[in-house]
Design goal:
By secondary structure, the chain is an alpha/beta fold. It folds into 3 domains: 2-121, Rossmann fold (3-Layer(aba) Sandwich), CATH 3.40.50; 130-229, Arc Repressor Mutant, subunit A, CATH 1.10.10.10; 238-369, Serine Threonine Protein Phosphatase 5, Tetratricopeptide repeat. It has 15 helices and 11 strands. Belongs to the AfsR/DnrI/RedD regulatory family. It holds the Pfam family Response_reg. It comes from Virgibacillus dokdonensis. This is Response regulator.
C-alpha cells in the first residue's frame, strides 16, 4: 500500500509516518505541507490512500479531497483533524475513515485494516461479475469501484426494470405490470406502452447482456441474472451475521454499516419498495445507534458524536440521535451546539413531518436553558 500524508505541521507528518511504519507495511511516498503542491503530487503519483488534514491553509482538506476525487474517484481518503465537526461532510465524500487527533495507535491500526480490506476487495478478476447497486442511487459497476449511473429512456422504463429486479428470477404477468404502471389507461393503449417500455429496457440492458437478460415467459416477463453481485443482498447477509458488539467486533460493525450507501432504491417513490426499504433502514439505524452508544459508554465522545452525527445525516428524523448529541454538547459546555442541534431538529420535523420534537426533548431543552443539570437523563 502506498500513501501520501498531507498536513500543514511537519511534526504531525512525521508522527503519523512513524506510527504507520510501526503497525503496517504501508509505504509513505510523500509528506506534504502545501495543499496546492499536494494536489499536483497526488494526481501524478500512483497512490492508494491519502491521509488528509482538514485544517490546511489556502485550501482546506475537504476542498482538496473534492478536487482530487474528480480525477481519481477510487482513491481512498482518510481525514485527520483536531475537530469532529466535519464528520458529516467527510462521509458525503465517501471517506474511508475520519480520525480525530490525537490518534491512539489502536484506532490507527483499525483504519489500516479497513484500508487493506478495501484494497483487497477491489482486485479485479478476469471473469469479473457485474456489481448492481440498489442502496442509494441505482448504479452498476462493470469494474469494481467505477460506478455507472444508467440513463433510462423514461421513468416508466426505470420502474419496470427495477420492479423486475426486485422480483428477479420470477415471472411477472403483463397484466400486473400494466396495472402497476398505467392503471388509468385503456387496455389497448397500456399494452402498446408496455411493449414500447420493454423495448427501451432491453435496449438499455444490451451493454450488460452477459449478466442481465429480460425474457418473455408465457404471459409475462422474467429478469434472468447471471454472475451479478447485488449490494443489497450482500449487505443484508453481512448485517444479519454480525456478532454481539464489543471492543473486538466494533470495527466489523463499522465496515458493514459503511456499506449502506443509502436506503433501498433511494430517490424512487415506488410504493412496492416501501416496506423493504423501511425494514432494512431500521435495521441499519438500530446497529448505528448501538455503535454510538457503545462509544459513549466507553467515554469515547469523539467517535460517539461522529456516529450520532452520521445517523442524523442518513435518517434525519431520528430524534434519539439528535437528543444524544444535545446532551453530549451540554456536558462539554458547548451551548451553541446544543441550540443548533435542537433548532435543526425542530425545523426538520416541522418542515418534513409537521410535528414538534417529542415531549422529552422539549422538556429537557427547556430545563437545560433554565440552567438545570439534567444532562444525563
Amino acid at each position: 500500500m502506498k500513501a501520501i500524508i498531507v498536513d500543514d505541521e511537519q511534526s504531525a507528518l512525521d508522527y503519523l509516518e512513524q506510527q504507520l511504519k510501526k503497525i503496517s507495511k504501508m509505504y509513505v511516498i510523500g509528506k506534504i505541507t502545501n495543499p496546492i503542491h499536494a494536489h499536483k503530487t497526488i494526481l501524478k503519483e500512483d497512490v492508494d490512500v491519502i491521509f488528509l488534514d482538514i485544517g490546511l491553509p489556502e485550501m482546506n482538506g475537504i476542498r482538496l479531497a473534492e478536487k482530487v476525487l474528480k480525477d481519481k474517484p477510487n482513491l481512498l481518503i482518510v481525514f485527520v483533524t483536531a475537530y469532529d465537526k466535519y464528520a458529516v461532510k467527510a462521509f458525503e465524500l465517501n471517506a474511508i475513515d475520519y480520525l480525530v487527533k490525537p490518534i491512539p495507535p489502536e484506532r490507527l491500526k483499525k483504519t489500516v485494516e479497513r484500508i487493506d480490506n478495501n484494497l483487497q476487495s477491489s482486485t479485479i478478476e478476469k471473469n469479473s461479475p457485474l456489481y448492481v447497486n440498489v442502496l442509494g442511487q441505482f448504479s452498476v459497476e462493470s469494474v469494481k469501484g467505477k460506478r455507472e449511473f444508467v440513463a433510462w429512456r423514461t421513468k416508466k422504463a426505470a420502474e419496470l426494470f427495477l420492479y423486475l429486479l426486485h422480483h428477479r428470477g420470477k415471472m411477472v404477468r403483463k397484466s400486473f405490470l400494466i396495472e402497476l404502471l398505467w392503471p388509468d389507461l385503456a387496455l389497448e393503449r397500456a399494452n402498446s406502452l408496455l411493449y414500447t417500455t420493454i423495448y427501451y429496457v432491453r435496449k438499455t440492458l444490451r451493454k450488460y447482456h452477459r449478466h442481465l437478460r429480460l425474457q418473455n415467459v408465457s404471459d409475462g416477463y422474467v429478469l434472468e441474472t447471471e454472475n451479478i453481485i447485488l449490494d443489497f443482498e450482500e449487505w443484508k447477509e453481512q448485517i444479519k451475521t454480525l456478532p454481539p458488539l464489543n471492543e473486538t467486533s466494533v470495527n466489523n460493525y463499522i465496515q458493514v454499516l459503511f456499506l449502506y450507501r443509502g436506503a433501498y432504491l433511494q430517490g424512487y417513490d415506488f410504493w412496492w419498495a416501501e416496506s423493504e426499504r423501511y425494514y432494512w433502514e431500521q435495521i441499519w439505524l438500530t446497529k448505528a445507534l448501538e455503535i454510538a452508544a457503545f462509544y459513549q459508554k466507553n467515554q469515547n465522545m469523539a467517535e460517539a458524536k461522529l456516529w450520532y452525527s452520521y445517523i442524523c445525516k442518513i435518517i434525519p428524523e431520528t430524534e434519539s440521535a439528535h437528543f444524544a448529541l444535545m446532551k453530549i454538547y451540554a456536558l462539554e459546555n458547548n451551548p451553541a451546539h446544543v441550540h443548533q442541534q435542537y433548532e435543526y431538529l425542530k425545523s426538520y420535523l416541522k418542515t418534513e413531518v409537521g410535528v414538534l420534537p417529542n415531549n422529552d426533548i422539549v422538556g429537557w431543552y427547556n430545563s437545560w436553558k433554565s440552567g438545570r443539570k439534567v444532562f444525563s437523563h
